[in-house]
């Protein structure tokens, strides 16, 4: 098997995540799809690292994970706050800046 | 000798190929389930499965540290945080199937398909000829190699990351913390408000106090045998998780009345 297949898998997962962000209306699931896209990018980075024989790709993937952790914390806090004020986690309902 | 090593690095072992095709299928199915499942909990669990498969792929590709971190941080911390929020938010938050933009779903699916074709065709066209493998880079240990890079070449990014994490922690606290602006209502005030509004003065009816069922998911019955919706917690009602035994017990009562009538004759 050619290791490039990992890149194809990564592209496929990224695509599924992107389509999910466009299709779903529930903010939590949209957020999960964003996480899926980040993970797909990480897989590509790790594969590139193996391809080029140095560890820089893995470092970038590591930083992506840290940023994803920070993003999840803030994003979920925002979702919880919106849910408190609007009693809905749908992205369509949060169409106004003010309640 | 040189030709053999290049060949070994260019194609993977049969074991890895089998692992890739089996687990790759699982990963894609998990991703599809994440997008297509109706309930947020099922989506979260599918995504956790996909992430574990990705961790195995990292381990197979020589990224040992990242493989472990993927399991600990992603499936261990981030997905559990998702599950907590699903518990807080997603109980009654079923996805509305009403489209606000007409045909948006199909357009989005089409756009996704086009994007995927473009991405995969791009990779297929790229001339990826040499595959070096991590044997040399991992010679002194994967963790040691990463550490020496993080603390030399990427030390500035690493420090910025610390600032980012602190900002995120404070941001989450600021966003979710609520300052109480008025005093908490006392019991007397609550009682007075109940009487003034006159909606439900008495306490709510208790759930399922029958001879057979005494569980919170069994609604209490009103004197005429119909179900009292108020007796089941709104969370269970929202999930549709209550057992309606009214028809059954009404039939039983009717039968009993009939028998006692016959006995008295």
From TrEMBL, chain A:
GO terms for biological process: ATP synthesis coupled electron transport. One of its GO terms (cellular component) is plasma membrane. Keywords: Cell membrane, Membrane, NAD, Quinone, Translocase, Transmembrane, Transmembrane helix, Transport. GO terms for molecular function: NADH dehydrogenase (quinone) (non-electrogenic) activity; quinone binding. Its EC number is 7.1.1.-. It catalyses: a quinone + NADH + 5 H(+)(in) = a quinol + NAD(+) + 4 H(+)(out). It comes from the Bacteria. It is a multi-pass membrane protein. It is found in: Cell membrane; Membrane. Gene3D superfamilies: 1.10.287.3510. The chain crosses the membrane at residues 6-23, 28-48, 60-83. Signal peptide: none annotated. InterPro entries: NADH_UbQ_OxRdtase_chain4L/K (IPR001133), NUOK/Mnh_C1-like (IPR039428). NDH-1 is composed of 14 different subunits. Subunits NuoA, H, J, K, L, M, N constitute the membrane sector of the complex. Belongs to the complex I subunit 4L family. NDH-1 shuttles electrons from NADH, via FMN and iron-sulfur (Fe-S) centers, to quinones in the respiratory chain. The immediate electron acceptor for the enzyme in this species is believed to be a menaquinone. Couples the redox reaction to proton translocation (for every two electrons transferred, four hydrogen ions are translocated across the cytoplasmic membrane), and thus conserves the redox energy in a proton gradient. This is NADH-quinone oxidoreductase subunit K. The gene is nuoK.
UniProtKB/TrEMBL annotation, chain B:
Its EC number is 7.1.1.-. Keywords: Cell membrane, Membrane, NAD, Quinone, Transmembrane, Transmembrane helix. It is found in: Cell membrane. The keyword tRNA processing does not apply. One of its GO terms (molecular function) is quinone binding. The chain crosses the membrane at residues 20-37, 44-65, 71-94, 106-128, 154-175. It holds the Pfam family Oxidored_q3. InterPro entries: NADH_UbQ/plastoQ_OxRdtase_su6, Nuo/plastoQ_OxRdtase_6_NuoJ. It is an enzyme of class 7 (translocase). It is a multi-pass membrane protein. It comes from the Bacteria. GO terms for cellular component: plasma membrane. Signal peptide: none annotated. The keyword Acyltransferase does not apply. It catalyses: a quinone + NADH + 5 H(+)(in) = a quinol + NAD(+) + 4 H(+)(out). Belongs to the complex I subunit 6 family. NDH-1 shuttles electrons from NADH, via FMN and iron-sulfur (Fe-S) centers, to quinones in the respiratory chain. Couples the redox reaction to proton translocation (for every two electrons transferred, four hydrogen ions are translocated across the cytoplasmic membrane), and thus conserves the redox energy in a proton gradient. This is NADH-quinone oxidoreductase subunit J.
